[in-house]
Design goal:
The protein is α/β, with parallel strands linked by helices. It contains 6 helices and 7 strands; from the N terminus they run H-E-E-H-E-H-E-H-E-H-E-E-H. Strands 1-7-6-2-5-3-4 form a 7-stranded mixed β-sheet, with helices on both faces. Strand 3 (46-51), helix 3 and strand 4 (70-72) form a beta-alpha-beta unit.
């Protein structure tokens, strides 16, 4: 409703497919608009992974309590992050729910794709869950980046396709991550 009141229309240009188990939905995280776009996807049995730093923003934290988010420890807490990813991997395998997160992690919002973190890829590999690559196409003219100055326009949410990780090997992970990120970089360049 807030987006509509601000003149932002959202077009969802993909259909959810049933994988028969948990899926790791990845998205490009380039704007504060993302906070409003993720819930609009309406992905069933899907929990959002978000930085624990959001807990310091009380209204946002209270909203997140209602949607059962998973708070990932900040990057300076390495042992806690590893434990978090292990637990989520186990839950994905056992409970067959899905997660949505950004492999870019926490960063300054720019009109580019930030470097990808390895943790979410390790999590997906350990869970043997496919990655569905979602792309949030926010035109530069309406992208508020770090602000909440929303402008009228259309945001398109689409998929860059699903990646089956079952044949991925740990030794090739840096190359595979580079390939996945490259698809996002190409999508942004084409926008």
């Amino acid at each position: 409703l807030l987006l509509l009141l601000c003149g932002v229309r959202v077009k969802v240009a993909f259909a959810e497919s049933d994988s028969g188990g948990g899926v790791c939905y990845f998205f490009n995280h380039n704007s504060h608009l993302d906070l409003f776009l993720v819930p609009l996807l309406g992905l069933p049995r899907t929990r959002t992974i978000i930085t624990e730093g959001v807990k310091r923003i009380l209204p946002l934290h209270l909203c997140n309590l209602g949607i059962d988010v998973l708070y990932i420890p900040d990057s300076d807490k390495s042992a806690a992050r590893v434990a978090f990813f292990r637990q989520v991997s186990e839950d994905l395998r056992a409970n067959r729910y899905s997660v949505i997160c950004s492999p870019e992690g926490r960063h300054e919002f720019l009109r580019e794709i930030a470097p990808f973190n390895r943790g979410v890829f390790h999590m997906a590999m350990a869970a043997r869950a496919p990655i569905e690559r979602l792309y949030f196409d926010i035109p530069a003219a309406i992208d508020p980046l770090e602000s909440f100055d929303m402008r009228c326009g259309v945001v398109t949410l689409r998929t860059l396709g699903r990646v089956d990780m079952r044949d991925w090997e740990l030794e090739e992970l840096p190359e595979r991550i580079r390939d996945v990120r490259g698809d996002y970089v190409a999508a942004l360049a084409a926008a």
